Amino acid sequence: LDLTTTIGNYTFANPLMNASGVNCFDKDELDAMVASASGSMVTKSATVKPRPGNPEPRYADLTLGSINSMGLPNLGIDYYLDYVATYQAAHPADAIFMSIVGTTFDDNIAVAHRIQDSDFAGLTEINLSCPNVPGEPQTAYDPAQTVKILDALFSFFTKPLGVKLPPFFDLAQFDQMAAILNRYPLAFINTMNSIGNGLMIDAETDTALIKPKGGFGGIGGAYAKPIALANVRAFRQRLNSNIRIIGTGGVHTGRDVYELILCGADMVQVGTALHQEGPQIFARLLTELQAEMTRKGYTNLPEFRGALKTL
Ligand SMILES: C=Cc1c(C(=O)O)[nH]c(=O)[nH]c1=O
């Protein structure tokens, strides 16, 4: 079966990759992604300077997913630029993604300049949806701030650029956000980030599971799947066809991958399940995706991409 998928001038052998923040913090984790069966990979969202992140416990596995308030721990943009420079020299034909984020408007611009001025030849994902920087609202929930950042970025950034979005829950919000995004030459959007500011409790101690923010953290995993399917579908229905879509949220089986593509996804990222199962999950997901395609009589992704039926 043909699992190739394309974003702009980049073609990937298959649509699977990690979600930023999972299995991509340092060289060891990134090398494990390179060794996996994934079609591509993305680095942990990088800030201008390294960050230790929030106090622990800041992550917990849940029966139906995960909760995290990591607080943007990362080794800084220079570390990840070094890693991708080495990677590109060794894999000139394979494109990977770098994720960037700023805790202020100026930092978003500064970290983007670092990529623009580098030899990085892959795709850049700017994170407009980190829910766990105390005191900082998720950028993409503020339309004016989103416009301000995208106006500034596209005044100098010429490399392929996409945005990582938080989930939206109202059709008017889909309309408003899509109208903004359609004004820019985006290579892709990635929908979605974790569902911000959930809360889970330890039954023995009646205590919040994680320490930061009084236990509030982003929710991923099975809890996220219905929201991710809807966000992929809603943006596919609203965005210009030249803006591709990466679908993220709730992937645990090949059928989950299939359903995000059915809703319109070009690439599919795996977060919580990758954290819980490890990079060998990609070989399992590819086997299961191909089994589902065969069951449905498809031999490639465009045959069923966006083909969700409604009653
Ligand atoms: C980059 C910060 C993020 C984090 C974090 O580092 O707390 N967790 C998420 O679930 N999504 C994010 O975008």
List keywords for this structure.
311 residues, TIM Barrel, single chain, 7-stranded parallel β-sheet, binds the ligand C=Cc1c(C(=O)O)[nH]c(=O)[nH]c1=O, 33% helix, alpha/beta, 19% strand, 4-stranded antiparallel β-sheet, 15 strands
Task: Please give a structural write-up.
The chain has one domain (5-53, 72-195, 222-296): TIM Barrel (Alpha-Beta Barrel), CATH 3.20.20. It contains nine helices and 15 strands. The mean pLDDT is 97. It is α/β, with parallel strands linked by helices and 311 residues long. It has helices spanning 27-35, 77-90, 105-116, 143-153, 171-181, 225-238, 254-262, 272-277, 281-296, and strands spanning 5-7, 10-12, 16-18, 59-62, 65-68, 97-100, 123-127, 161-165, 188-191, 195-199, 201-202, 207-208, 216-220, 244-248, 267-270. 33% of the residues lie in helices and 19% in strands. The protein has a seven-stranded parallel beta sheet with strand order 3-15-14-9-8-7-6. Strands 4-5-13-10 form a four-stranded antiparallel beta sheet. It has a two-stranded antiparallel ribbon with strand order 1-2. The structure holds the ligand C=Cc1c(C(=O)O)[nH]c(=O)[nH]c1=O. The site of the ligand C=Cc1c(C(=O)O)[nH]c(=O)[nH]c1=O has 16 residues, from loops.
